[in-house]
Structure formats: C-alpha cells, structure tokens
Design brief:
The chain is mostly helical. It has helices at residues 5-15, 21-42, 73-78. Helix content is 41%, strand content 0%. The longest helix has 22 residues, at 21-42.
C-alpha cells in the first residue's frame, strides 16, 4: 500500500484537517515511512510467540483496600470555614 494525495485528502476530510501543499507532502512521506516500518515488522516470524496480554508479570502491586477511620467527623469539620452541625457549607453552584 502506498499513500498518495488522494488518500491524504480522504483522511484529512475525515479528520476535518486542511493541509497546504508543502505540509501535505510531509504527511505523505511520514505515512509512507510508517507503512514501511509496519512492513518491516511483518517480516518477523511470530508464529511461536505467545500474545502479550499484560505489560508486566506483576499480579497486584497495590496495597490491600482496608476500611479504617483515621479522622472523625468532628475533627474534619473543626477547620472548615463554613459548616453546619454535620456538613461542610459550600457556595451554590447549580441553579434550578
């Protein structure tokens, strides 16, 4: 497959892009380079290679999700600029 002006025009139309003649030629060269690289990759024999599902062999590197109460409601409201008996007061952001 080879990229030409017509192909770039179709792709540009789909992507809602406009190219000048100079930049269109650069795009054509870049796309043809990409296709040559893919063709080079297709030359590799991958018949005995297992498909890669995960990038790492690590199973779970995260900590356990344990529920714990580290701060009380009273302590959380202590430094609030505006508060009710149980809640933070914030400015109204949605009008009905």
């Amino acid at each position: 497959m080879k990229i030409d002006n017509e192909t770039v025009d179709k792709i540009a139309h789909l992507a809602r892009l406009e190219f000048e003649n100079e930049s269109k030629q650069e795009i054509i060269n870049d796309m043809n380079n990409m296709l040559r690289f893919i063709d080079k990759l297709n030359e590799l024999d991958t018949s005995n290679i297992e498909p890669l599902v995960y990038m790492s062999g690590e199973v779970n590197v995260l900590r356990e999700d344990d529920v714990s109460h580290t701060i009380t409601q009273k302590d959380a409201l202590k430094n609030a600029p505006k508060k009710d008996s149980d809640y933070f007061k914030v400015p109204k952001v949605i009008d009905k």
